[in-house]
Amino acid sequence: MSASCPEQLLSLEAWWNLRRGHRPMPQRSDLTPETLRPWLGNLAMVAVERTEAAPRFRVTLSGMHLDDYRGYGITGRYIDDLQDGAVCSLPQFRTCTVERRPVRFIHDNSRNSLIFRRMAKLLLPLADADGQVGHIMVSLYPLAANDAAATARRVTA
Predict the structure, then answer these.
(1) For 8-18, what is each residue's pLDDT tens digit?
(2) Where does 7-156 sit in CATH, by number?
(3) Domain boundaries, the chain
(4) Helical H runs in 41-127?
(5) Do the beta carbons of residue 58 and residue 49 sit within 8 Å?
(6) CB 85: neighbour CB atoms within 10 A?
C-alpha cells in the first residue's frame, strides 16, 4: 500500500503488533472493545471456517461505518457469497490466513458505495486456541483521493 495509507490503519497495525508481542499474532481473546475504541466503527470480525475444499470467511461483526459505506449490513454473510464485489478480496483473506500476517491493500469499493470508490483495507490475523488463524480483524477507511469525488456526488445528488 502506498504512502497514502490512512493513519488509522497504520496505528491499528502498530496496536496489533504490540498485542502480539513475540507471538506470530495475537489471540482474539486479547481484544477488548475498550482497546479497539479508536477504530471500532471501521472494524469487522471475520471467522475463518475450515472446510475440506478451502476456508470460508464469515462476517461475525461489522462496524457501523462499514455498514454505512455499503448501505446495508453484512454480519452473518460469507465473503464468497456476497454479490457486490467483496469476492475480489478472497485472495487477500486467503493470504492472511495461510501466511498468518497482516495484509494491506487498496480495495475498489465502487460497486459497494455511492460515496467512496477506493478504500484502504487492512486484514489482521487472530489466533485461535491451537495457534491457527481463527478470525481476521478487518479495517476499512476511505482514501483521501475520494474526498473531491464524494463531495461532487453529494452536491449533484
Answers:
(1) 999 999 999 99
(2) 3.30.450.20
(3) 7-156
(4) 64-70, 90-99
(5) yes
(6) 14
Quickly tell me which residue has 495475537 as its cell: 26
CB atoms within 10 A of CB 100: 15
CA distances from 141 to 15, 48, 65, 109, 124 (A): 17, 22, 9, 11, 15
Q: Which residues contact 87 (CB under 8 A, 6 or more apart)?
A: 79, 80
Overall residue count recorded for the chain in this entry: 157
> What is the per-residue pLDDT across 21-55, written as a single tens digit (0 to 9) for each?
999 999 998 999 899 999 999 999 999 999 888 89
CB-CB contact of 141 with 119 (8 Å)? yes
And the C-alpha cell for 23? 507471538
pTM of the model: 0.84
The C-alpha cell that represents 72 in the structure block: 446495508
The owner of cell 486456541 is 129
